[in-house]
């Protein structure tokens, strides 16, 4: 066999990697791996509540610098809502696991729904003579 015949090893390795990437892209696009990635997302969702708690604490820190009741009511702490898989069943229940506010704590009642859990981030903001917190009055609009 003479030198120069055949394919270089680096070309074969690059071709194999390219083929593997192409197969993964096609499988993901068609949906064959969609269930696999969804399971990863659900397993990784165990920290979802703590992630929301961190976001709520950051929102509370920003609210400390507000100067009016209206600003507090429209702040992320009061107005931003979250959808959290509180019971860890891999699904977001539209009645009990959506539109959850930072100040929701276990036992929060909204209409006929009693929330078993929530971020529960207490935030006290002094605006003028009034002290505002999430669930108390004056506080976030219900």
Write the layout of secondary structure elements.
Blueprint: H1 9-30, H2 34-44, H3 48-63, H4 69-73, H5 76-79, E1 108-110, E2 113-115, E3 125-127, E4 130-132
Antiparallel strand pairs: 1-2, 3-4
Question: Any overview of this molecule?
Answer:
- The chain has 142 residues and is mainly α.
- It has one domain.
- Helices cover 41% and strands 8% of the residues.
- The chain has five helices and four strands; from the N terminus they run αααααββββ.
- Strands 1-2 form a two-stranded antiparallel sheet.
- It is elongated, with a radius of gyration of 25 Å.
- The relative contact order is 0.12.
- The model is unreliable at 38-46 (pLDDT under 50).
Major sheet? 2 strands, antiparallel
The number of helical segments is 5
Structural class: mainly alpha
- What spatial form do the alpha-carbon principal axes imply? elongated
How many DSSP-defined strands?
4
Tell me the count of domains. 1
Helix content: 40-55%
- Give unreliable regions as ranges: 38-46
| Amino-to-carboxy terminus distance | 83 Å
The residue-averaged pLDDT reads 78
* Order of H and E elements: HHHHHEEEE
Rg from alpha-carbon coordinates: 25 Å
Output the strand order for the largest sheet.
1-2
Q: Report the portion of residues in β strands.
A: 5-15%
